[in-house]
Amino acid sequence: MENFFDFKKNGTDFRTEILAGITTFLATMYIIVVNPAILSAAGMPFSGVLTATVLVSAFSSIAMGIYAKNPIVMAPGMGINAFFAYSVVLGMGVKWETALGTVFWSGVIFILLSVFNIRTMILKSIPRQLRYAISAGIGLFITLIGFENAKFIVSSQATLVSIAKMNPIIITFLIGLIVTAILVIKRVKGALIIGILFTTLLSIPIGRLWGNASSINYGTSTLVTWNGLISWPDFSLLMRLDFLGSLKFSLWPVIFAFLFTDMFDSISTFIGVSEAADLIDETGEPRRIKESLIVDAFGTMISGPLGTSSSTSYIESAAGVEEGGRTGLTAVAAGILFLPFMFFSPLLSIIPPIATAPALILVGVFMMKPVIKINWSILDDAIPSFFGMILIPLTYSITQGIIWGFLSWVIIKFVTGKRNEVSVTMVIITVLAVLALFA
Fold first, then answer.
1. Residues whose CB is less than 8 angstroms from the CB of residue 233 and which lie 6 or more positions away in sequence, other chains included
2. Pair 126, 182 in one domain
3. Which of 370, 386, 404 is the endpoint of a domain?
4. Residues 6 or more apart whose Cβ sits within 8 Å of residue 28
5. pTM here?
6. Are residues 301 and 346 located together in one domain of the fold?
7. Which of 164, 163, 192 is nearest to 179 (CA)?
8. Tally of domains within the chain
9. pLDDT digit string (tens) for 95-128?
10. What is the domain range of residue 380?
11. DSSP element (H, E) containing 356
């Protein structure tokens, strides 16, 4: 195993990789519950989606670790699942079986683009300045998600967003954030895991001794609630997709939308995690990018047949990377940890959102490192980079940030007479991006 993952070259060891895998899993395991909650709105059985979510996350993450040898975890993508449920099924009136078929065909296209290096060409055409900006933007996005999960930042009619009033939940979250931050600063091994467990324990009295968690915990008054131990897997969604019905011409825009969104989400994740962790090859590109993209495509292709929306690479992988994960063993460990929750999924409810929020926020801090590499004094680089970075959290969409970063880069470079800094591939991507805005 040491030789297969090349621990010595990567400056790591077995213990560090396993610890990093556990950290990444804890940062991403919320998807096991959240994804079924979203897709059940489309009429799909919650338990069936939960089983599909676990299987896709496990298989694709393990494949990422063994084949691509990168510490990046995969799971059904947030945002993509909302598009599946609310836009395609509920909005367009497409049956969920047919929608699963469009996910499968988008995965087939992914495979072709990846095998023939077209996705790698796309990645290499992205200017480094935009890569740095995307990484920083993802960091801001993760931080926003963390604060929102803790209900520290809430919506406001007057100011769009605002800070919530102090209550037991917010106080508990802030204590957990401070303790976790101190552990990180002191470079305590497993700091994020310790922080998650500490905040969970600190949350037990909420709803029992003080406060009420109804606003944050699906109507349950207690924040940490025991819901049992064992639940048997539900395989009712296995192979329920409509292969042929999903190929109708009217559904091609849906296939393209899944393709486009997943492609840029995964590419931006590879860029962000690689830049933040210095997982760069001798050419300056993310390590083993072709293999990683092929696995990403594989994850999407198996999502439809297993019964869930598209799988994608997870930005929360940065949590494990920050714990020292540098090889595929991190992804393998995280992937394996998904499997027991087909049987022990109720255990996930023990860890509340405010317990994982500090980890997400601190990961956002780590991912801001590349921002110092942006040429802020060269405005034709700085302005589109800033647009790409800031619009990711402001639009709550990695894809939107990328689209506007690319579009502004191409326009500004052409207008300022620097067309040589814009590749043909970049122009094609931008045109497709603009078309996606009107899809």
1. 51, 54, 342, 343
2. yes
3. 370
4. 57, 73, 75, 314, 316, 317, 334
5. 0.71
6. yes
7. 192
8. 2
9. 999 999 999 999 999 888 878 877 667 767 778 8
10. 373-437
11. helix 353-366
